[in-house]
């Protein structure tokens, strides 16, 4: 067999896949405490370069050992989402089977913006839209859902739809459509994810056109103060066309009061977008759904399945309450892809509604897990993680050298270590230094965030193998780091 056909050979493909699967099995079975071991970038680049063939003229022979070395290097570096000591970020420890489905997607390569290329992905998008809407509550057939590559892009897409609804000539005339009128603006909670202000920037909405709404003591938008802020914005000539609520802020996992904000938005003819990238998944749990009370009143919702639905990234769902609005973000003609008179096939295309032309059939992983295991897989895992986070909070409350900074509403918990001898002025720097030292100790991966301007340690419980025993071990590790820092005299003054 010459080499080109061999690279596509089905039997070799299976044999090589089995080698890789065996490595993944070992990787998944390793439940040791592994933090984030940061490799020196220069060394990692050198190690990767050393794996490259020197052959330039013809296709190099397949080298089984090289494939094994590539996979080993991949597994050894980077974030260890399957370790029980991984508590650092919102990246998901995926259900491994979802990885297998993603593997199929990669091999069959059926992009999903158009039904004719990706038939099953487009068909099951309809099924998942209906399944998940059963927790939102919109009437069948009245709403729409489109998948898109990440929560950031979903937020941008929803804001575009909101802007085009409020300023119908904007798409064709650009900024000239506003001549002499009020300036477009959006209103966001002070803790909104940066992707929202970035999306505003992309749309030509300057920082001064972003109305930041004050938060209450629980880090949620305060509706009364929001009302005054919107009044003030209107007096300065801003037309707030979209209010963005967060369902699970990135920093502390706070849920804005969606129902009250929906009333406020509707009163002012303003679109309500809910950024539920992190927390929308709580909807599938009977126990936790209440955090998103009022969600059926929102105009659009961003829902990252690659966070709390435990499938590979990206897998984001963008919902619209009014199905017509799903066509509002982009208003283009392109005869090579968009049919003037869609038939029953083209009616399932999402290309007119999402930014991507070639789009990963991301829904396949979510649908396959849902089809095989059903909703309870997700509900049970999310309930466990949120319960674990509440238990961790109680542990901290009962531990004098730690301070909680909020009561967790989901699976994100921020706190500070305050050992005796730490001066008040040093608290901020101390948390930053502790986090960095814990990271370098290599057993736990946690993050940090500023809360009320002072750094806090942050855990995001994403792995159901993590228990309160692991959390107590983490506290021991933090104390050890703290002692060493205090001993060295750094950060204590
Ligand atoms: C609340 C919130 N919105 C949006 C995003 C961005 O989502 P993505 O990383 O999928 O682009 C994040 C990511 O952490 C988030 O926490």
UniProtKB/TrEMBL annotation:
Supply the source organism's classification. Answer: Bacteria, Bacillati, Actinomycetota, Actinomycetes, Kitasatosporales
Which cofactor does the UniProt annotation name? pyridoxal 5'-phosphate
Q: What is this protein called?
A: Aminotransferase class V-fold PLP-dependent enzyme
User: A Pfam family name for this chain?
Assistant: Pyridoxal_deC
Tell me the GO BP annotations in alphabetical order.
carboxylic acid metabolic process
Alphabetized UniProt keyword annotations = Aminotransferase, Decarboxylase, Lyase, Pyridoxal phosphate, Transferase
Listed under GO cellular component are: cytoplasm
Q: Which family does it belong to?
A: Belongs to the group II decarboxylase family.
As one GO molecular function, the record gives: pyridoxal phosphate binding
- Show the InterPro entries listed in the entry: PyrdxlP-dep_de-COase, PyrdxlP-dep_Trfase, PyrdxlP-dep_Trfase_major
Q: Does the keyword Transcription regulation apply?
A: no
Please give the residue positions where the record annotates the modification N6-(pyridoxal phosphate)lysine: 307
From which domain of life does this come? Bacteria
């Amino acid at each position: 067999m010459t080499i080109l056909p061999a690279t596509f050979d089905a039997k070799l493909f299976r044999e090589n896949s089995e080698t890789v699967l065996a490595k993944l099995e070992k990787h998944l079975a390793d439940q040791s405490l592994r933090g984030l071991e940061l490799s020196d970038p220069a060394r990692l680049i050198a190690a990767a370069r050393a794996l490259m063939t020197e052959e330039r003229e013809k296709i190099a022979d397949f080298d089984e050992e090289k494939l094994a070395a590539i996979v080993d290097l991949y597994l050894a570096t980077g974030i260890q989402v399957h370790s029980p000591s991984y508590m650092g970020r919102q990246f998901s420890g995926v259900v491994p089977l979802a990885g297998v489905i993603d593997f199929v997607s990669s091999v069959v390569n059926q992009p999903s913006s158009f039904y004719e290329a990706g038939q099953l992905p487009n068909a099951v998008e309809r099924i998942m839209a209906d399944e998940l809407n059963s927790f939102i509550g919109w009437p069948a057939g009245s709403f729409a859902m489109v998948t898109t590559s990440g929560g950031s892009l979903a937020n941008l897409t929803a804001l575009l739809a909101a802007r085009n609804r409020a300023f119908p000539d904007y798409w064709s005339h650009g900024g000239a459509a506003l001549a002499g009128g009020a300036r477009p603006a959006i209103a966001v909670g002070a803790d909104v994810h940066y992707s929202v202000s970035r999306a505003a920037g992309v749309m030509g909405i300057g920082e001064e056109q972003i109305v930041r709404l004050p938060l209450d003591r629980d880090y949620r938008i305060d509706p009364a103060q929001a009302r005054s802020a919107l009044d003030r914005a209107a007096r300065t000539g801003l037309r707030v066309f979209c209010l963005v609520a967060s369902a699970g802020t990135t920093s502390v996992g706070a849920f804005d009061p969606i129902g009250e904000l929906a009333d406020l938005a509707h009163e002012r003819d303003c679109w309500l977008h809910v950024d539920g990238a992190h927390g929308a998944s709580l909807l599938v749990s009977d126990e936790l759904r209440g955090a998103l009370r009022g969600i059926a009143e929102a105009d659009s919702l961003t829902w990252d399945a690659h966070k709390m639905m435990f499938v590979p990234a990206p897998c984001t769902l963008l919902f619209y309450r009014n199905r017509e609005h799903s066509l509002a973000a982009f208003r283009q003609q392109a005869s090579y892809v968009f049919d003037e008179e869609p038939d029953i096939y083209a009616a399932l295309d999402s290309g007119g509604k999402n930014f991507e032309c070639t789009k990963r059939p991301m829904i396949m992983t979510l649908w396959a897990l849902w089809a095989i295991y059903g909703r309870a897989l997700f509900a049970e895992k999310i309930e466990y993680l949120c319960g674990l986070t509440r238990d961790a909070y109680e542990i901290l409350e009962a531990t004098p050298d730690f301070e909680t900074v909020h009561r967790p509403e989901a699976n994100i918990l921020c706190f500070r270590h305050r050992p005796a001898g730490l001066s008040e002025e040093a608290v901020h720097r101390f948390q930053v230094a502790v986090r960095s030292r814990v990271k370098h100790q290599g057993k736990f991966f946690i993050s940090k965030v500023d809360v009320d301007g002072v750094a806090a340690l942050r855990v995001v419980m994403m792995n159901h193998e993590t228990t309160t025993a692991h959390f107590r071990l983490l506290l021991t590790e933090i104390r050890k780091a703290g002692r060493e820092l205090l001993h060295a005299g750094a950060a204590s003054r």
